[in-house]
Amino acid sequence: MSFRSRLLLGFGAVALVPLIVFGLRVRVSMADRMTAAYQQRVTALVSVIRADLDRQSGAIASRLDALTRALAVDNAFYAAARHGGERTYLLDYAGDAMHLAGLQMLQIQDDQGRIVSSGHFRNEYDRAEPELPRLLAAAGGTALVWARTPEAPFLALARLDSVQIGGRRFTVVGGVAVDSSFLARLAPDSELAVTLALPPDTVAARDTAAHVVSILTQAFVTEGDSARLVPARIVVTHSLASLAALRRGVELSFLAAVLATGVIALLLAAWLSARISRPLAELAAKTADVDVDRLDVSFESDRVDEIGVLTRLLGAMTERLRAGAARLREAERRLAMGDLARQVNHDIKNGLIPIRNVFRHFAEAAGEGPEPLAAAFRERRETVESSISYLERLASNYARLYPRPARESCDVNAVVRETLGRVGDTGIAELRMELVDGVPTARTDALVLRRILENLIGNALDSLAGATGRVIVSTGRTGSGNGEPGVRITVADTGRGMTREELNRAFDDFYTTKPGGTGLGLSIVRRLVLDANGVLRVETQPGTGTRFIVELPGAGA
Q1: Percent above pLDDT 70 for the chain
Q2: How far is residue 56's CA from residue 52's CA, in Å, rounded to a whole number?
Q3: Of 455, 453, 356, which is closest to residue 414 (Cα–Cα)?
Q4: Half-sphere exposure of residue 476: CA atoms within 13 angstroms, side-chain side
Q5: In terms of DSSP H, where are the helices of 489-537?
């Protein structure tokens, strides 16, 4: 972003940010105050609704009390309920009493929970519903219940009462219908709405976002054999439509003020930036000529202002860059030589390890006598000569600094046998070969393959951490992308494995988890495999071991 653009944005921010903060503060304060007022109205209505529900419950209770008193002295009901006669009287009793009392639901049950009369649904006679009185009693005597009718069930606000007749207790459940007109009477204000949410219904998210919401609970008896008592919610909402309209009006006026202020600020910033940015543009053009290979650019200025100071600072910085570039080139040369020295050291150590093991064998054989020493010499002579040949070829390769790998045929099984023979018996780990006969020859140098195997087998032995374990080197056939057969070499161990973090860094130069390690083994393996147009894969699991899989193209590829 140019200096002129920054200056324009700066002026715009200075002019607009305070105005925007002020406008947002006014908008938030207005919304908070109006929302608080709406919330007070809703809270007040909730109190009114609760009082109204209590009055409704009290009115139902008084009607049920009158009905129970009448039942107590009704000899015909007693005779019909006690001796089973006058069934028609029982069937009609609750219906007549319900209409006289001004109720929409009335049910009379005996002490066994059997319905002896139902006013809202005559066919409920003799049906057992013992859970309803028990749940109503648990709710404090009042709850919302579903009442059946011949047409459809309806929701009722019900209360519970009882009467003792002839030594038997009869339960009376009565109530009024809770429908849309009932809810409308609870909300006298047209801007307020009252809805009923029965479990498992919930208040919709859009309601809580576009309305002020308050909720009061009322006990509700669910239907079915597993009837239980759960809370139903009476939701009181106040629409925020008027607040939204007021916000839109304020926002339009505020937007007009912001646009006018922004235009004035941009015009002033454009005039000022034109007077400042020209000398800076000239300085930027001269700075663009500075490069690592071109540090002879001259920065001189007679100005006494900030631009002059900046020009002279750039000149001093260029002088320091000239000196620093020379030191950097020398440091890079030394770093490259150090990396090469570490790699040479690593490869030479791999070549010396078999020779060291042979001489240890010679020392043990010499203690037993001349004949065991001669036998050991004959047995391990080839290993010494092979290791010396390996070191000579390394020296020849490093003499060319970075030789191109030979593209000759290589007997993979023979190289595996030779490498494991040089490693010899470790005394703890079990070294095993699983070689498949008839694998194709690989198109790589035998020295390269030996270096790959020595590094992978050495890492596998190190992963055992001195404990007993197993290292298996196996070969097999594989197919390449062009249809030519290739060879697969697998080095598997039962060591500690690698974590995800260790696997991600395993092939980085100089990364190692072994005390005294160089961190170059796997890095060299990857480079050698890639040079041979091969593929290297790793399968590992902490605590179970690691498998390195090398796939090389066949000699005919």
Answers
A1: 83
A2: 6
A3: 453
A4: 9
A5: 500-505, 521-531
Q: Does the pTM exceed 0.70?
A: no
- Going by C-alpha positions, the residue among 331, 548, 528, 333 that lies closest to residue 444 is 528
For the chain, domains (ranges, CATH) are: 1-288 (3.30.450.20), 303-403 (no CATH), 405-553 (3.30.565.10)
Task: At 187, give phi and psi (nearest 5°).
Answer: -115, 90
- Is 439 within 8 Å of 403 (Cβ atoms)? no
Residue 471 contacts residue 434 (beta carbons within 8 Å): no
Residue-wise burial string across 378-402, b where 16 or more C-beta atoms lie within 10 A, e elsewhere: eebeebbebbeebbebbeebeeeee
Q: pLDDT tens digits, residue range 60-93?
A: 999 999 999 998 888 888 888 776 667 788 888 8
C-alpha separations of 494 from 465, 501, 527 in Å = 11, 19, 25
Strand blocks (E) in 360-460: 409-410, 429-434, 442-443
Q: Which amino acid is at 171?
A: T
Cβ atoms of 531 and 448 within 8 Å: the answer is yes
Q: Which of 324, 321, 280 is nearest to 297 (CA)?
A: 321
Task: Provide the pLDDT for residue 280.
Answer: 72
**Could you give the C-alpha distances from 476 to 450, 451, 487, in angstroms and in order?**
17, 19, 6
End-to-end CA, the chain? 54
Q: Using an 8 Å Cβ cutoff, are 175 and 182 in contact?
A: no
Helix extents (H) in 73-200: 75-83, 87-101, 131-138, 180-186
> Rounded CA gap, 556 and 360, in Å?
42
Residues 6+ apart with CB under 8 A from 11: 265, 266, 268, 269, 272
Our measurement of the distance from residue 151's CA atom to the centroid of its chain's CA atoms, rounded to an integer in Å, reads: 52
Amino acid at 97: A
Residues contacting residue 518 through CB under 8 Å, at least 6 positions apart: 342, 345, 346, 510, 512
Q: Give the DSSP H or E segment for 173.
A: strand 168-177
The C-alpha angle 377, 380, 384, rounded to 5 degrees, equals 105
Q: What rounded mean pLDDT belongs to the chain?
A: 80
Long-range pairs, 242-247, Cβ under 8 A, ≥24: 242/191, 243/31, 243/34, 243/35, 243/38, 246/30, 246/34, 247/27, 247/30, 247/31
Evaluate whether 254 touches 23 at the Cβ level (below 8 Å).
yes
From the DSSP assignment, how many helices (H) and strands (E) are in the chain? Answer: 13, 15
